[in-house]
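Practice set, problem 2.
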Amino acid sequence: MKCLIIKLLLVINHVHTKIALTDIQKIEQVVFDVNNNLVINPDGPLNGLRGYLLDKSGYMHNKRFFSSEIDTFYTMNGSVNSESGQFVCDCVRKKVKDHAYIDIDTDKAKKKYLIRYHTQLIRMFPSAGDNLSISAGRPNALIRFLKSKPVEQYSNYILAALLLLTEHVNISIGADLEKKGEEKLFLKRADGIREYFNLSLALNKKKTDQIWKDYHSETVEVIEFFKMCIEYPLLSPKTVNGFTEPTTYEQFMTGNFLNTPQFLIQSYIYEFIKTKDDYIEFVKAVHTLLSDQMEYADTITRKSPKCKKRKLLERAYKKLFIKKEEFINTKNHLSHIIQLKSAMDENNPLPLVEFIQSLSPTILPLYNRDTKEFVDNENTIYSDCVESSILGMLCWLLYSTEMEKYSTVHLFSPSSDLLMFFKNYSIPSKSVTREMRLDWCRVVSGLSTNEEISYIKEKRNEIRSGLLNIFLIIEEVAGHSSEISEPINYLKKMLSEQQLDKKFNVQSALLQIFRYLSNGRVTEVLCEDLRILNRTDNRPDIFGKFQLICEFSTIFTLDISSGHCSVTLMNSSSTRHIHQIKNELSSIQREYTNPSTYIECIIMQYITVELNKINCSINNTVYIPKKQILHHLSNYKNSVSEIFLFGRISHIYTKTFIVMAFLSYFEGREFPLNDSFVRFTKNIIGSTVLNGRTQRQHIMSVLLFNSCSTIYYTNIQYTFNDFINYEYNPYLVTDILKDILEEKAFSVRTSMGSFKCLLKILAPTAQFYTLLRRETTFYYLSSLISRSSDSLNTLFMAITYVNSIITRDMEFTSSDIYIYWLMHSFEAFSDEPEISHMIYDSINPVEIGCKFKCDGNYMITCGKLWNELRDYKEYFYDEYNIVSTEKYVNIMDKLSCLRTKKANRDKYPFTHYYCNRTNSTCIT
């Protein structure tokens, strides 16, 4: 297909500096009503700390991307190219096509509200890039109206009106749509006569564009939604099980508040307002509108003393503002969070830490170096895990602590593209933008002067993972100096000989490169898990984990595996400060043990999650809220909102665990397709960078453990057969199997069901035998047997499953598998000989090694087993039972024959993979 070169119209998530805590502190001191000496109520919705913590906690991020009420649009199609014979995976994710489900599984009143709520949520947070964002490319979007020149000066009043509507203050804001082409948005004063503004809703668009209406209809619909909320029964505090702001921690932890209009508008305002001064102007607008309502209510009250409006307004006023003398006596929420942030900042003195943490892979278009343009073709987009890792590594190596910016002056003849990049991005930012990623592609994509550099996609895009390949890229952009070329030649020599040198020599060679690139700041290189493996293009390369230690007390880790690459950065002195942070968190947690207000609940949950993260950091593990997720599943009532409160869902391990936990916990039970957890996990899968091979492997691997996964996730058009043939990672699958068999929260029945499901899918392939003969597989199975109340019955279930799946046309027998199991059982169940005896009873001596030429591993196992059966003869040999004696003699004869036989070439094409899942997980 001919690629259409277009000028990229990208909605870039400009990572603006949100209001800092110090600015929030200054805003708290501002008096907004001099006569009454009023300041912002620290427990109310105007407190900037509320928006700050909600954002840090990732609640709206989770809500936008994973809500079960939202149908996220994505497809994944895996197939084999008929011409090249290569496997191709085509993944598409279009957030612009996301929409609210109309068949939400709840009562009629809630359904109607939730459809409208999530429709507006999608519109207000289009999030076209990789992160949560209110930016949008479509001309009809709310943000485009608020930021337009005629409207911008009134945007604070519009947002203030929407906020007051969620507080049940009936602000007169609306649209006049009577005259076509002259649609207006008005905001009237409380008397209904005078106006604050009357703005044109006309949409500036090309005449050829027929997609949008002639006016800002989305803005009108957003406003109409918030106006509806004033009298909506579900939003009344008096309604049982409605959607209201929580007053207790128990209510908070249901997550129902995530469906309130207050949460929606407060999150939007925090994203919209960028500076302290803007926020002060916004609060002034709130005060002006509310004061106007109060003054008008006074006139009505004089005429009609029983008027309820005055009481409603007083309630809203007290919620939003407080007298300064009363403020002094309130709990100082902000000081706790500022002190905590100060401790955390001390632990992360380098500005690069946050930047490198933001370098998770994303999807990018191809770059055509000849035309200097990007190529819009959904079939050729790719995941930039290697590109972003190289970017993070070079940023860290080139950062000068003296100049506090990047420096390339020490490099010999760097490329013009590299120089231009670090001229445009000379100072570290807190996070990477899409624009920065695209500019980096201009540096490292399409390099053609060195044919040894390996790319995956056409036009020489998507750098292939591998240490040598990464160094060839660096040499090309940083300059051909002897400090780089000599170590590269050394690596090439090792690869040509297929033999790793001593680790010390490898580390010394790598140190030469990294010392040069860092201008001498890297002082040590440590290598772990070094291996020579074939890359995805079948050429050998070096893989492993490489730690670079620098003079300014940081450790940079480059983790390279087949098909994937990642980087991390931590302050090596963090161990001195980490307990200080933990103590600070614990102190705040004690302060908020019994939260009684919404903001106190937010603080309590934020601190709890941060403590769990710290504990995982101490153990050098990835934070995954396993205990909380499993507890939620044990009490599952068709809602997933609670899970959104356990931290931002972003890491692939977290996503994998959530999907695995659901599928394994409920194996054997089929849910309707509109079930909340089915849709939640469907969105989890869709949010994953499925164009990335490693992330795709994680997701596809967990789907193997549930018989309903192909029913639940119809967006995935990728057969298990193709997955096993082209991308299956046996070590990754075994890791997941370990989690399922060892996790006590899973019943023995469901764990065994997941195991059986996996076996059924693998049965037609060589991976079936490979999995069952592995020692680790049996030990994980032994964990399940040991935690069951009836170990023999559990083992019998496993044997029954294996026997039921193995057929006569397979090139091995069940006895060939039980040979391994029996051998492993002597160590795993040394105190339970009856376990070994049951496995022994399942072996048919006639079947041992009768169907295939035995490999070396099989014969070694036979030899070891012969020795064990000889030593424990009394357990298996009964001289008074002719059946027992014959079986024992026949087995021993067969084993003896096999153990003395020379190893023949294994008939099975067992492929050895390398597990990318290097980090362990943490139960909190």
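Problem 2, part (b): a different protein.
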Amino acid sequence: MKAHHVQTFNNQTLLFSLINVTLATTLMFGNMVRPGVYAAWQDPLPPRLRINNIPADRVVRFRSEQEHDHFRLLDHDGDFLLIGAKNMVYNVSAATLSVRRRLEWRPSESDVKMCRLKGKSEEACHNYIRVIAKKAHDRVLVCGTNAYKPKCRDYALLPTGKSSGHNSHTQRGASNGEFSLTEEKPGEGLCPYDPNHNSTFTFAAPLGYRTDGDLYVGTVGQFSGADPLIYRKPLRTEQFDLKHLNAPQFVSSMHLAGFVYFFFRESAVEYINCGKAVYSRVARVCTNDQGGPHKFKERFTSFLKARLNCSIPGDMPFYFNELQSTGPIVEGSYRGERARLIYSVMTTGSNSISGSAVCAFRLDDINAAFHGAFKGQEDKNSNWLPVINSKVPEPRPGQCVNNSKSLPDVTLNFITNHPLMDQAVPAYLGRPVVVHTGFSYRYTYIAVDPQVEAVSGKAYDVLFIGTDHGHVLKVVNVASLTQTSDSGQIAEPVVVEDVLVFAPTRISSSGSRAGEKSSGSTGSTNSAGAPIAITNLVVQRSPYEQKLIVVSNNEIQGVPLFHCQRAQSCVDCVRLQDPYCAWSLDERKCTHNWRRDRHSSVQSIEHGWDERCGVNFGATSEVLEELSHNAVDRDQTSSGTYSPTTPYGPLDESDTSGTAPRGSNISLTACLPCPSTPALDTAALYFARPHPNSGAIVDDSRGDAAADDLGLERNHNELDGSGSNTVIEATGPFLSSSRMYPAETLAISVTTSVVTSLVIGFIAGYIFARRCKNDIEMDTGPEDYTRYVDIQRMNGLMTPDLGMGAYGHELSYAVGGPRPINLVLNKNGKPTNHLSNPLPNANNTMQQMQLQMNNLAIHQQATLENKTTLQKVKKIYL
């Protein structure tokens, strides 16, 4: 009985140990995401600064009187923005977002009636402007959907004071000058039928020399949208050929050095035998392509395309397959070499695990893919494989030639059947620049401010990333200059800011936007509203100011590129890691005008700390709580301020105490008053708690429920005097009421506890089992069969019952099973029945008793060899 309990205990101990191992492994691998190492589904990088509310005097905005405008930023030249909308074209000043001129173009009643007869909605049967291209300084090409009957018009801008009589084809601008219609023509192939179709266009000629033959467009033809094409009058791609274009969604296009590049996503024809997938593409055509002879006279002879590979590396790479946006070509120095990069926003599918990434593609890698092997398919049931070089004709298909009409048919037939390149274009540095995973939002658009100079003299690309929930992220590409950090890990980008630009709005039953503010600061939150996606971003620079133009479907805003003034201490300013901002030791403030005195400016883009700030890093959360209970009147302090988000007042340059190890990410929430620090403004102190998703300090005393719903924090001290919602995030271990530990400490603790529990569990089980075994051996002698028979009877088995009499053993059988057991002994080669032997009497000698016991032993051995139920009984006993 004891042995049975010992075995049960050992099984339970083993099961408990296995459970511990499983849980520990899950915790260990789930939390051992080292800083700087890209994981497939890591937590989003926290921003250094969250801004929920931008002061009204720092924001400019534009929206028209129409209920739904469907804005598209179609062209900008530095001073003006050309915006296409529903039935309208706006020429807007980039500095003030005020309308300089407007052009109204509505579809005719007959076109609207025909559109309605074809089954389209009333909202769709308007003229949505989708192409605005300047041919010269005084001439512009405008194309619109025109109620599902695309048309294009050429307009001329008349000088001031020169009017054409204000007829139906002349419209006065909002300021001086008039637009005069010079030509109207069909727009099929230049503009989509459906306003929801994504299209792109670009001119491949300098301003003033542009004609219709220089306009390259990627769009869809036909009313049903079943004819995608890349078009330049009179050439186009192959019609109804899935190898060329397969349900593409065009993103952008650009002209560079004799080529026009198109970026789009489409259904992958090379994956069609395995299912359906969407791949991102880059395609190019030669600007001097004149078409081919005979049947190729209206076809491009240089069209090639390749896949864009944006993925997290590994044994099984994770791909971001759907291209959403591309930035302009930027040129700079990256890791000691000059390169031209194109930053792109890539996402997973809409019905997939939500993920977004920004990848950079080098132009040399794109051209190398077009000079590589072709991909082809022998027949419809074959795999897509590289085409061997011996099958590629000469001259090589896809190259730019002086006279494409003289190309041989073998070259033209080959490029018609093999427009896809085998090699995909890899991401620069082999991985995404920044990755966001989660269901909260996706990236939608990107703008780049290239090669922004820092105090150290290094230049960094600053990325502005729009999201589908109205936020703009500012990211500094640190990895473009250094691959590894001081600790040997892969350098990760710096998310400087997360700014709420378009707050969610709710449409009321009357059609107006509820919760909308006509004045005041931007970014007020309406928790019941739908998020507003950002559709375009433009970095606007002028001699007087710098701003970011942010476009949504119904509103345009201009917001600052930087928010240096929100950091009021040296530590907070340096911790931003923003190349626009530096701490001035002379002026004792965080400023963007640091270039006037570079030597007295403190900044650290790669590390986020500088020893010249002179900060005591050993403060604890108890200090913060103690100071919060000893608040005094603000007027009693002479200078300096204090708050959980700005823990230090102005610091003296000579104070260099409390420096931190080089390469560490400093995260501070409180500091003991330093001797060289001015008096703290303890009136601004209050009890604070850590934000659940970051190391930021959240004010429990604020009454901003809307900001709390979004997880955004209000700066209690109103750093810029505007009452803006701000929080400076912690980037490393932060000090709070519950101390936090890094992932390495957690991994070591979990591993130690697992090993310890395994060792203790097995040792305890072994000792307990041995002790129970010894107790049984002490209680039962080698000749005592009474205990043995009791165990047999308890298990319900038919076993021999041996009782010890006065003169010897008496052999009997207890019927414990459903059938008798005929025990046959093989003695001297002859089978004998042990039951037939006579029982000993009282006069038997000790030798007879010994012989009987030997017979019993032989009987037991034979029974075990025959695998009877007695074997099971013996196992239980042992």
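Answer key, part (b): The first helix runs from residue 2 to 31. The longest strand covers residues 322-334.
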